[in-house]
Design brief:
Blueprint (H helix, E strand, L loop, with lengths): L3 E3 L6 E6 L5 E9 L2 E10 L3 E7 L6 E8 L4 E3 L3 E5 L4 E4 L10 E9 L6 E5 L3 E2 L6
Parallel strand pairs: 2-11
Antiparallel strand pairs: 1-11, 2-5, 3-4, 3-6, 4-9, 6-7, 6-10, 7-12, 8-10
Amino acid sequence: MLGLFTASPAQAELRLCNKTESQVGVAIGYREDSSWVTEGWWNLPANSCETLVAGSLVSRFYYIYAVDYDQFGEWGGRAFMCTREKEFTISGIDDCVARGFERTGFFEIDTGEQSSWTVQLTEPVQGGTGGQ
């Protein structure tokens, strides 16, 4: 099951909350100027939250991919972007494999142009990708 997406009245930022009993790794994709950027990994312990983007959100759409390290499930979707196993910041989402990266499906977050947003991850889909 994909997590709930809710606007947060707190300070301006994009936060992700891990509402599972497992440690979760998170990657994010977003538009920066005229190109796409992906970044990872944030490692969130069970039942914790982390700020992925500090300050007011400048994009309406953000993309998230997360993996459950303990149960081996994942949260993903059909927006394909580049990742790698170790910590990364990657510019561009084209030709991921040819450039030595993995091609990974992210799910879309539509913030509705709010200045702050919180994503809550609940139990992941086992052995496959969730999302729309």
